[in-house]
Write a structure and sequence with these properties.
The complex is a heterodimer of chains A (about 140) and B (about 110). Chain A is of the alpha+beta class and about 140 residues long. Helices cover about 15% and strands about 30% of the residues of chain A. In chain B, about 20% of the residues lie in helices and about 40% in strands. The longest helix of chain B has 12 residues. The chains are: A alpha+beta (about 140), B alpha+beta (about 110). Chains A and B meet through strand 1, strand 2, helix 2 and strand 6 of A and strand 2 and strand 7 of B. Strand 6 of chain A pairs antiparallel with strand 7 of chain B.
Chain lengths: ~140, ~110
Amino acid sequence: MSTVLFEEPFATMPGSSPNNQPGQGDMKVISCIIRPEHLEAVKAALDQLQVVGGMTVTDVRGFGRQKGQVEHYRGSEYTIRFIAKVRVDVVVRTGDADRVVAAVSNAARTGRVGDGKIFVLDVRSAIRVRTGERGVIAL
Amino acid sequence: MKLITCVVRPDKLDAVTDALDKQHIVGMTVTDVRGFGRQKGQVEHYRGGEYTIRFIPKVKIDLVVQDGDTEAVIATISKVARTGNIGDGKIFVSEVQNAVRIRTGEKGTSAL
């Protein structure tokens, strides 16, 4: 005899698997803001893991708690508010997310202010445009 | 934690940053984007003929905040970025599962 503990309204949604609790999916997007000079190292680290199907890289600018940096030019100070960074987005199976976070952290860390951040968010659906495939097979 | 993604006019970037600074929201990522909403671009005139610029330059501001700060941040950005004209932009909110500060390895809200 089985006991139904929760509804499974999302069980038939594309990209979800049976026994998923609502709000928990098969896939996560790992969005990393890193120093531009670490892009190659991060890419190499992700290649080695072999769980990453691809990545999207965007040039961005931003700042964290230190609110930019102070530069000097010809004897006077000026503040660069927005520092150039690179954003690397990868979508992976939920089970691989922790390893990806660890790999990116290690490849991108210098220990100095400005190293960046990593955010992990749920992905509801993934579709391969060329074929229409949905879910983890689209990764 | 919530991810607040704002698409605003490029000339509003400094005003939004200053307003968030006053609220002690630290940290944001800015991307140059282009887009359109319901008006589907704008019509320009050149040498007597009309042409439509479909994609208008905008600036995307991403910030991750604690759940409790979400409404206040949305209110601030809306107020500062609004001109009342078509093209003011939009704000989207999504859920963040986790956050990591790369330098130290801190996770969760202490990474913000």
